[in-house]
Design a protein that fits this description.
It is a single chain. The chain is 76% helix and 0% strand. It is an all-alpha fold and 112 residues long. It folds into two domains: 48 residues, no CATH class; 32 residues. The longest helix is centred in the C-terminal third of the chain and has 31 residues. 0% of the residues are buried.
């Protein structure tokens, strides 16, 4: 929709390399190439496997916790509206005394 508005208004989009937002194709391609290169190098894979086995043997509890966290997947970044409102209130509550003091100073200087 935004691209259509820009075209209709005669403006050119500022991002000439296409979809580089949430669906960043260039970064995805770079990641895929690096992952394929790593996986195709047997020496690196074997070394990483040995390192992981050594770590599991040395720190079994920590490794088990790390595995549990990894199995849960990435944390969600979505915040509910209620959480946003609460965050906004906490910011206002922290800033309000500063604003009140500054306002009192300005009023006292104006009354002189």
């Amino acid at each position: 929709m935004a691209r259509e508005v820009l075209v209709v208004s005669g403006m050119k989009p500022t991002n000439p390399n296409g979809n580089q937002g949430e669906g960043d194709r260039v970064s995805a391609r770079h990641y895929n190439e690096a992952a394929s290169k790593f996986a195709s190098d047997d020496d690196k894979v074997d070394e990483a496997a040995r390192d992981a086995a050594t770590y599991v043997d040395a720190e079994p509890a920590d490794a088990k916790q790390a595995e549990r966290v990894a199995k849960r997947g990435p944390k969600g970044t979505r915040v509910s509206v209620d959480e946003l409102v609460d965050m906004g209130r906490s910011v206002v509550d922290r800033v309000k005394p500063l604003v009140d003091r500054a306002l009192a100073r300005v009023k006292s200087k104006l009354n002189r």
